[in-house]
Amino acid sequence: AGFDVLTTANNHSLDGIEFGVENTLDKLDEYGILHTGTARSPEEQGEILMIEKNDIKIAVISYTYGTNGMEGSVDQDKLSYMINYLDDTDRIESDINRGKEEGAEFIIACAHWGDEYVRNPNESQKQMADKLFSMGVDVIFGSHAHVIQPTDKKTVETSDGLKKDVFVIYSLGNIVSNQRDRYRDSGLILSLEIIKDYDKGTIGLGKIDYIPTWVYRFTKSDGLHYRILPIKDFMDESLSISSDDNRIREVWNET
Q1: What count of other Cβ atoms lies within 10 Å of the Cβ of residue 33?
Q2: Other C-beta atoms within 10 Å of 76: how many?
Q3: Per-residue pLDDT tens for 184-200?
C-alpha cells in the first residue's frame, strides 16, 4: 500500500502485554517497515528514527496519552522503556535534543491524544502541542479521536529563541475502520511539503494539502471487505458505487 513508517505508541500498545509489543515490532522488522513509539529494550527506546530523503534529515518521534490501564499488567522494569508516554516531557525533550544532535533538520511528532469522537481538540492537546513546538518539533500528526479534528499553522518562538512556522493536525480521523457512525467512517491523507533552501540555509514548511477519504465497506462471499476511497473522485454523480453515494457527498461537506 506504500507505507514506509508506522508509529506504534497508542492506547492499545499493551493489549497483548509484553509479547504484543515485542511480536509487533518483530513482524514490522520482518516486513521491512520502519517504526517508532514502542521498544523491545532500553537501547532501542534510545534510538531516534531518522529518515533521510532528498538531502533532508527528518526525525520521527511518537507518544501516547496512555495504555488503557494495561500498564499495571506489565513488568514495571520493561514498562520503563516499552512505551513512549506523552506525560513524560523530560523524555520527549531528551528525544528531540538527541535527534538534533544526530543531525535532524526537521522533527515530526506523532501524538495519540484527545477525546474519542470529539471533533475539536481539548485544552490538554493544545497545551501539549505548544510544548512540543517550544521544544523544537516542526509538525504534529494527531490520532486517537477516530474523527477528523482541525489543523493549525502558526509561527512560534522556540526555547532557543528562533522563530519558525509549525503545523499540527489534531486528528487525521479513521483511515480504515469498521466504525460506521457519522464522522467516524472517514479521515484524510495529509500531504505536507518540506522545503530546503540551500541559499538561505533554511528548512521549513511548503505546501500543505489533503485528500478526504471514506471507508467503503462491502460484502463478498468470503465476508466483509474494505476500500479507502478518495472522496473527490466520487463526487461526480455519474460515478456510482452503491446506495452509499449520498454518504460520500455528505462526508465531502463534513470534511
Answers
A1: 13
A2: 8
A3: 999 999 999 999 999 99
